[in-house]
Specification:
The complex is a heterodimer of chains A (363) and B (77).
Chain A: H1 2-24, E1 30-36, E2 39-41, E3 43-44, H2 47-52, E4 57-70, E5 75-82, H3 87-96, H4 102-107, E6 110-113, H5 115-123, E7 129-133, E8 139-147, H6 153-156, E9 159-163, H7 164-171, E10 177-178, E11 180-185, H8 191-199, E12 205-209, H9 210-219, H10 222-248, H11 253-263, H12 268-300, H13 306-311, H14 328-354, H15 358-361
Parallel strand pairs in A: 5-9, 6-8
Antiparallel strand pairs in A: 1-2, 1-11, 1-12, 3-10, 4-5, 4-11, 6-9, 7-8
Chain B: H1 2-25, H2 28-42
The chains are: A alpha+beta (363), B mainly alpha (77).
Chain lengths: 363, 77
């Protein structure tokens, strides 16, 4: 049970980290945003033109996104605006959504929604469309065109993807403002130099590069996994103490059994070998069983309950399929952390009983 | 004694086999490709956390300052 819980937590966190790392390769290298008093504010679109003038910078893309609060039920969605007329976006959309009719999609107000959003809107009688209330107090009706693939639920569950102008209207961005601007720098050796150049452009600019995002992905869920590891160590040490106590008790059956074996002519080495093999078989079977049940629980059943510790459960219901990832360093660490204290807790008292006189041991 | 042991061993082998089959049949390529395609489309990969609407980023006392418990601080230098 202890092993199952610990393995589930570690398997889940490695899977989440793996999935996010896979997206890192295709993420933009840099993000710039305007700050005011430490908080992000709408970024002037014209900054994009200034960035393009710097040698080495390519793929300058403005982004518009923000959360839309569904007031009556205190839930929120993530609205993302995409320039579908851009060739690259168009191509990516065709790849993501098999055979999507872009002409029909752009003919009126349409959006692509994540599975969680679709399920939530369905349950609240918005089966085909939703009426957004813009900051100007005007209602904007947007039809649901298609649902995003379930494989992307880890990212897209609470997402509404729509044309950029429509997102701008719903989120209340002015024509000359965007949420932030991204760009790529092909040569990684130039990253620091470009970062300094861009930072020097304006006093109120914040520049974030992909390495920092990478670091945050590395640290992501480490503290939650670590918390479970600490709990595991506490439980394991208690368990080891109970085992130790059982073998070192003066009148225990095990003590008598060992004394009997010694009296029958078994050497200390024989007794230790027998106990080691017995304990090792126990440890190995329980380890394999714990890992297997954890694998089924996380990757086949989707880690019900535990998923909510990592992804939360207050907003939209998220049915994520976790990508099976078996990190052998994690598996080895679990085995060593579990096997060594367990075996030691049995062998140390067994050795201390074996070296005593058989008559005393059988008392 | 041997019979229950054999049952456990067969059970373990069956579960290992089931795990192997699941691992082999899982469409890694499709799952990773979909994630990468949506990231390329929207130029970001925001983790879809199911947390309550975060008003903490709007500091009520000092509206121009972010709340102290914000993830943004991870990205700060």
């Amino acid at each position: 049970m202890i092993l199952f819980l610990l393995s589930s937590v570690l398997l889940l966190s490695s899977s989440l980290r793996f999935s996010l790392q896979q997206t890192l390769d295709v993420q933009p290298d840099f993000v710039v945003t305007r700050t005011q008093g430490g908080a992000s504010t709408p970024t002037p679109l014209i900054w994009g033109d200034t960035l393009l003038e710097i040698h080495g910078i390519s793929k300058v893309t403005p982004r518009i996104y923000g959360r839309y609060f569904f007031k009556p039920k205190e839930h929120s969605f993530l609205i993302i605006g995409v320039d579908f007329l851009e060739e690259q976006s168009n191509e990516n959309l065709q790849k993501l959504m098999d055979k999507i009719a872009l002409k029909a999609f752009l003919s009126t107000n349409h959006m692509l929604v994540g599975e969680g959003v679709k399920a939530y809107l369905n349950a609240h009688f918005y089966k085909d469309s939703y009426q957004f209330l813009t900051p100007q107090g005007v209602f904007e009706k947007v039809n649901i065109f298609k649902v995003l693939p379930s494989q992307t639920n880890l990212i897209s569950n609470d997402m509404m993807i729509m044309p950029m102008d429509l997102a701008r209207k719903i989120l209340g961005y002015e024509e000359e403002h965007v949420s932030d601007i991204t760009f790529n720098v092909a040569n990684p050796d130039e990253w620091n130099m470009i970062s300094d150049k861009v930072s020097a452009l304006h006093y109120d600019i914040r520049v974030v590069n992909k390495n920092e995002v990478h670091k945050s992905y590395e640290n992501l869920y480490n503290y939650k996994g670590g918390l479970f590891l600490v709990l595991f160590l506490i439980v394991l040490s208690t368990f080891a103490l109970i085992l130790y106590q059982r073998y070192s008790m003066v009148y225990s059956t095990e003590r008598r059994q060992l004394g009997l074996l010694r009296a029958l002519g078994w050497s200390i080495n024989d007794v230790l070998k027998w106990k080691f093999m017995e304990t090792f078989v126990l440890v190995f079977i329980s380890y394999i069983l714990g890992i297997l049940i954890a694998y089924i629980y996380v990757f086949v059943l989707g880690a019900p309950l535990l998923k909510e510790v990592f992804l939360g459960g207050e907003n939209l219901q998220n049915n994520v399929t976790f990508i099976p990832v078996l990190d052998f360093t994690v598996l080895t660490s679990i085995f060593l952390l579990y096997a060594i204290p367990f075996i030691a807790a049995v062998l140390i008292p067994v050795w201390s009983v074996s070296v005593t006189d058989p008559k005393e041991a059988m008392l | 004694m041997i019979k229950p042991f054999l049952v456990v061993v067969f059970f373990l082998i069956f579960m290992l086999f089931a795990m192997g089959v699941h691992g082999v049949l899982f469409q890694y390529g499709k799952a990773v490709r979909s994630m990468q395609q949506i990231t390329t489309l929207i130029h970001m990969a925001p983790l879809s956390l199911s947390i309550s609407y975060d008003e903490s980023k709007y500091n009520l006392t000092y509206p121009e300052m972010p709340g102290l418990s914000r993830m943004d601080f991870i990205y700060e230098k």
